Amino acid sequence: MSDVSVLPGSLAVRNLFEDLLGREVIVSTGDPLSAEEVTTATVAIFTDASQKIYGVLGMQLSLAANAGAALGLLPAGAAEDSIDEKQLFPNLAENVFELCNVFTSLLNKEGAPHVKLYQVIYPGMELPGDARAVLLALGRRLDLMCEVSRYGKGKLSLSLAP
Fold first, then answer.
1. What structural domains does the chain harbor?
2. In tens digits, what is the pLDDT along the chain, a chain of 162 residues?
3. Angle at Cα 146 formed by Cα 140 and Cα 150, nearest 5°?
4. By C-alpha distance, which of 105, 126, 124, 103 is closest to 114?
5. CA 1 to centroid of chain Cα atoms
6. Does the pTM exceed 0.90?
């Protein structure tokens, strides 16, 4: 089987966020998450049917908190409090988990192996070394700055395993 994995485009990511959050989301090219930012990021690990890492999505704490608050129709202050305390509150984490689960739809393509959400790692939890390596690797990756209207912005990095 040939490799039919394709990174989603920034438009697809924007559309997914806007559809899910029900508000405008501005997406632009961004810098990758740095190694220091990964420790406070929310990271989703996607695997194929054989449990092999397919890709890793990292969201800067500010993006995870803002998107989680917007998805839960919570005030922007809930996200700000979460960012100030450098942790993703449980109610926001639950919403971000759902966002990551829906994000899987951007990774599944006809004729390609089925990809599923394997695990979401929240700030303060230990990120497995293999997932960290994929997230920080050069190569097949998408790095964006996402701004959720009336909430705030943050980095999003998606890296597909080699």
1. 10-160 (3.40.1550)
2. 445 568 999 999 999 999 999 999 999 999 999 999 999 999 999 999 999 999 999 999 999 999 999 999 999 999 999 999 999 999 999 999 999 999 999 999 888 889 999 999 999 999 999 999 999 999 899 999 999 999 999 999 999 998
3. 170
4. 105
5. 28
6. yes
